[in-house]
Amino acid sequence: MKPITLTLCGWGPFRDKQTVDFTKVSEKGIFLITGQTGAGKTTIFDGITYALYGSMSGEIREKNSVRSDFADADTPTYAELTMMHNGLLYQIYRNPEYMRPKKRKNGGQAMTKEREKAVLTLPDGSVMEGSGEVTRKIQEILRLDYRQFKQISMIAQGEFARLLTASPGEKTRIFREIFDTALYDRFASVLRDEANTLYKEVMEYRHRMDEDVRQFHTEDEIWKELTSGEAHPYEQLMDRLEALEKDCRREEKEAARRLEKLDQEMVELEKRIQQAETDQKAFQKLRETKARLEALKGQSGDMAQKEERLKRGEHAAEIRAEYQQVNGVEKQLYALERQEKEEEEAIRREVALVQECSGIYEKRDLLLAYYDLSQSMEELEKRKAAGLNRQKQLEKKLLCHQQDYLEQEKRTADRQHELTEAQSRYRRAVIGLAARLVEEGKPCPVCGSLEHPHVAGTGEDVPDEEQLNRLQEAYDQSAARLTALHGQAAAARAEAEGQAEQNRQLADEENALLEKRGSFSEELVSFASIHNREEVREQAELYTGLIKGLEVRRQNKERLSADKARLEKELAAARESWEKALEKGGFAGPEAYQEAVLEETDRKNLSEAIARYRLELGAAAELCSHMEEELKGKEETDTAPFLDKRNSLLEEKKREESMRTRWSIGASDAARTYGLLKEKKKDMEKKEKAYGIIRDLDNMASGNNAKKLVFEQYVLAGYFEDILEAANLRLRRMTGGRYELSRVEEAGDGRSKDSLEIRVMDYYTGKYRSVKTLSGGESFKASLALALGMSDVIQAESGGIRVEALFIDEGFGALDTESLDQACGALMGLVESDRMIGIISHVPELQERIASQIYIEKKNTGSHVR
């Protein structure tokens, strides 16, 4: 990374926009940034590191405290860097989060927060925004984070020996990113994970095999002895499982042979039991058939009565039509007589009701008009009561608003008084501040007088502008509240007066209705108080309906009388035909006919029962004769002895089957366990072989080796020694050959050490010592040599990281004249490497040696770059 231009605005000592053009001072490769103390030399480095990473170059400076105290309210605070990297141009803009004044509408001022912002413009013109996103992109481009950039490219004030004395772990993190050696650490991690995985898999196989052994249950004493220890002899256990399987199979065959013999005995016994049970069932069925035959013969008399009943029922069915004709006409005539009586009774009732309703019907219109007037008065009373109630509520609301207005009026007066008093004290204080400029014998800056008999004082308890603004704001808010309350009170008054007017109108309407109600007679009013509107309406409608209904009922009665005469003639003819049918059917009268009547279903059921009886009687007699012929010469046999024998054989067979099953399960369990152990043992041996290879590689890569050095540290040690070799080329030159840096390989007590610890050889004493024992100037030389050596190795080994610029903040003040010459010589030697070196210093010797300079001019209105 090589900076082209840096622009800082409203930043630290820089009041307005200041631009540093590095192209003008970097032609010779090395340049000096100089100026008075506090002018802002280090601010240049702060701007570069902040533009790149959003952080400052020094640890004591914070990015949220950089806004210039000299800057105007409308001057922004930002840093903008244009840089060249790998031949490509990048532009970065950042501003930190800071507080700035904002203009208020009432003329006062308050503070507002400017949010942090970052914008990166890439070589292709695309733009990326966001502080975190821009920082991550810069780290990706430079392949250095903020901490690594400081230690490699920027040696900030007070941090000369940071990289020199950094912990081995910190150096490892820096070099891992620079030389991309994380691959070796990941490789070692993969080996370690793989070794752990394989070890777990081997142990898992052992656990699973042990579980198989535990799940195999046997009473074999040899097996119990083999499994009594913690480690199981799998080979011996597998041999024993094979022997147990053979023993179980042999016992299983013996049990099967005994079961086969028992099955043959059971077959013969079952045949004898089946024959005995068949004979028993035949004899039992013969006994049951004979009993049923005797029972059927006992039912012969009953069947004769049923046949006679069926015969009389069939004769009655033949004359059923004549009976139904007489019965039907009688029912119709009875119904007509009942309807005729009902009509006569209804006519008498309705005539009486007509007489009752006639009086109401005649005066129905006046009653309905009175009811309408009464309803209107009731509704008016409700509206009047609601209006009076609302008027009370509005008057109460008006009173509350008036009280609120008076209280707010007092508070507003108090706020105005406080504001007036504070403004008065502030004006007197301003005059007092101006009076401090008055000097005896010199003109007054206000009136010009040379005499000053009574110089004004500033007084005590003087408010500042912020307090005045708060008082003004409190008064404005109180006055606005007073105006709002005035409007609310006026609206409440208008609403209350409007409701009072409505109540007066309702009273006038009530008087008019009362006058109209006086025109109705007392008799009508009395009747209306007893009867309601619905009753009057119902009575009027009833009267009209009754008049029409009476006419219909009288016509219906005449029709019923004619129908009755016709049915009486039909009944006489039907009765004559019925008497002839009774005589023909052989019935003495209607009572004999009714006794003989059977429904069609009953006749059918009775006929079927007689036929079924005759069929069952014949079948029982035939079956009984056939069975007696079949059982001739046979006797019943008792099955109890056979059943006892069968139960005995079943118990014996059950015992043998249990034994065979136990031996079969034992053989299967032994064979299954043997197969599981054999398969898992084979897979475990493969895993153990792989684990042995990976474990050896893991030991070598993770530091379990003769040198106690992990793989990545071994690689980094090579790079580190190259860096130290390059650094020593310059350190020997800057120290006159006295010092030489080297890597600490092993502690004195032989314990393992990190491979990136540094020690220094002092050729004056011929002994190694810690770099922390170097003086300030010696530490600066060593740090400078190490940074330059690292820059050489990085560019030689890693094409992705180019250290094209090195910035040094002070440190040269700790060098004597000879050391200063040596350091400058070493830095001048880097010019040939096309590298930019910027030095911040106010050491006069450096100003004489380095021609290209950026001067920071310090003024009481802010610093300037020239």
Task: Give the SSE layout.
Elements: E1 2-9, E2 18-21, E3 30-35, H1 41-53, E4 78-85, E5 88-95, E6 98-103, E7 109-114, E8 117-121, E9 127-129, H2 131-142, H3 146-152, E10 154-155, H4 162-165, H5 168-179, H6 182-215, H7 221-226, H8 234-297, H9 300-318, H10 320-362, H11 364-435, H12 465-517, H13 522-530, H14 533-585, H15 590-596, H16 600-630, H17 640-701, H18 711-734, E11 739-743, E12 758-762, E13 767-770, H19 776-797, E14 805-809, H20 817-828, E15 836-840, H21 844-849, E16 853-857, E17 864-865
Parallel strand pairs: 3-15, 3-16, 10-14, 14-15
Antiparallel strand pairs: 1-2, 1-4, 4-5, 5-8, 6-7, 8-9, 11-12, 12-13, 16-17
In percent terms, what proportion of residues is strand?
5-15%
Q: Which topology of the domain at 1-143 and 801-865 does CATH recognise?
A: Rossmann fold
- How much is the average pLDDT? 79
Task: Please state the second-level CATH architecture of the domain at 1-143 and 801-865.
Answer: 3-Layer(aba) Sandwich
Number of helical runs? 21
Largest sheet: 6 strands, antiparallel
Outline? flat
| Total number of beta strands | 17
Helix share, percent: 55-70%
Low-confidence stretches: 747-753
- Cα(first) to Cα(last) distance is 24 Å
Structural class: alpha+beta
Indicate the CATH class of the domain at 1-143 and 801-865.
Alpha Beta
Family: Belongs to the SMC family. SbcC subfamily.
Protein name: Nuclease SbcCD subunit C
Keywords: Coiled coil
Coiled coil: 234-286, 326-397, 489-517, 550-584
Folded structure, characterized:
Residues 234-286, 326-397, 489-517, 550-584 form a coiled coil. Pfam families: AAA_29 (PF13555), SbcC_Walker_B (PF13558). Keywords: Coiled coil. Heterodimer of SbcC and SbcD. The protein is an alpha+beta fold. It contains 21 helices and 17 strands. Helix content is 65%, strand content 10%. Among the domains are: 1-143 and 801-865, 3-Layer(aba) Sandwich (Rossmann fold), CATH 3.40.50; 331-432 and 463-533, Helix Hairpins. The longest helix has 72 residues, at 364-435.
